[in-house]
Structures are given as structure tokens and as C-alpha cells.
């Protein structure tokens, strides 16, 4: 968790609180020196941050003294630490990341997800763990698909003229999504002969699906995501 200049103040504060908690959990007392080493920043940077955290009532610290979290500070630090550990476990066990990569991604995401998101991800992870213990076949199929993931899809409107692809997903909303599903725009369906044109009605896209010629405007063409073939 390096001191990166583009980090928001909130994320920076949370990293400092988490670092203090991690030092405490290791059985040691947090100090400016230990925090600077763990976060790979200067002591001056740590000292300035601790002053703000103290003013906000999140910790106690006297010049050259130990750093002690207040009850409010410890509650906040524990929430961030729990989120970091949970996300790391999710990326390792569910998505198959290396632990180092999982730690790095979790470090970024832990500052952005809210409690509801965290709870839903936790429920999903628990369900996956239960399926793994029960040896459910669908979980094995899912992991096989994750291990053989294809390149990322592109919207139909960005596909080259004359290209083809397979529908990955349709991101249209509400009534448009229903109409497109009813018309057969579903994952796995192949689209061929994609071409971009321009007429009195504006930019349009023609293509073939299930043997039928179809013409889309930019709105519909932006909502259909394809794996290139």
C-alpha cells in the first residue's frame, strides 16, 4: 500500500488506519517508524497524516510517542481490514488470482465498495464455498470457464467492417432490453457481416443474425457486446 499521489484523502486515511491495526494485530505497538516502513513512505508523511487523524478523533499520538487507535479509529480500521482480507480471499479462491495480485487489487477496491456491496459479495463467496465443499458440478464448470476466459468483448458499434462475433451480453435497459431479448439477442448467438453506414437517419450498423439482415442505430449497437471471432 504505497503512498501514491493520485490516491484520494479518504483512501489515504484508511490505509494509515489499516496499517496501525495490522501492526497491533502482529503483537507490536505502532510507531511512526514502523508505519513508514510498512507503507513505504517518509516519516514526515506519516507524521502529517497522524496529526489529521488525531484531530479527527481516530487516534492518540504524542510527538515521538506510540500511535494508539481510539475506539472510533479501531472500528473504522477493522472495517477496512476486513474488507481487504475478504476481497483478497475472493480474488484468490473464486477468480484464481495469485495472492500478490489479489492483495494489490483488493487494496484499491477496499476504499470504494460500500457495506451492501461487501455483504452481497460475502454471501456469494459463502455460496461458492458451500458448493465447493459439496462437490457441485456447476462450480467445476464455472472454474473451467474462468481458467479459459476469452479476450474482453467489444460493443458492436466498434467492430470493424466485415467482422463477426458472438454475443457476450446485452447492456440495454428496461423495454429496449426486453425487446432485444425477445428478438433473439442472447449470449452465444453469432453475428456476421457487420458494417457501419451513414444515411439520412444518421449512423447505422447492418449485420446478419440467424440468417436475417438487421439494421441498428447507435443506441442498440452500443448495447450489444461481442467476442470477436
Question: Quick gist of this model?
Answer:
This protein has 229 residues and is an alpha+beta fold. 51% of the residues lie in helices and 20% in strands. Strand 1 (59-61) and strand 2 form a beta hairpin.
Question: How is this structure best described in words?
Answer:
- This protein is elongated.
- It has 2 domains: 1-113, Winged helix-like DNA-binding domain superfamily/Winged helix DNA-binding domain (Arc Repressor Mutant, subunit A); 154-228, Ferrous iron transport protein A (FeoA) (SH3 type barrels, Roll).
- The chain has 229 residues and is an alpha+beta fold.
- The chain contains 9 helices and 8 strands.
- The strands form 2 sheets. Strands 3-8-4-5-6-7 form a 6-stranded antiparallel β-sheet.
Topology summary:
Blueprint: H1 9-25, H2 32-39, H3 43-55, E1 59-61, E2 67-69, H4 71-93, H5 99-109, H6 115-133, H7 137-147, E3 154-155, E4 163-170, H8 174-182, E5 190-199, E6 202-209, E7 212-217, H9 218-223, E8 224-228
Antiparallel strand pairs: 1-2, 3-8, 4-5, 4-8, 5-6, 6-7
Helix pairs in contact: 1-2, 1-4, 2-3, 4-5
| Major sheet summary line | 6 strands, antiparallel
Helix/sheet category = alpha+beta
Radius of gyration: 25 Å
The amount of helix comes to 40-55%
Tally the helices: what do you get?
Answer: 9
How many β-strands, per DSSP? 8
Mean pLDDT level: 88
- List the uncertain runs: 1-9
Keywords:
single chain, 8 strands, two-stranded antiparallel sheet, 9 helices, alpha+beta, 51% helix, SH3 type barrels, 2 domains, Arc Repressor Mutant, subunit A, 229 residues
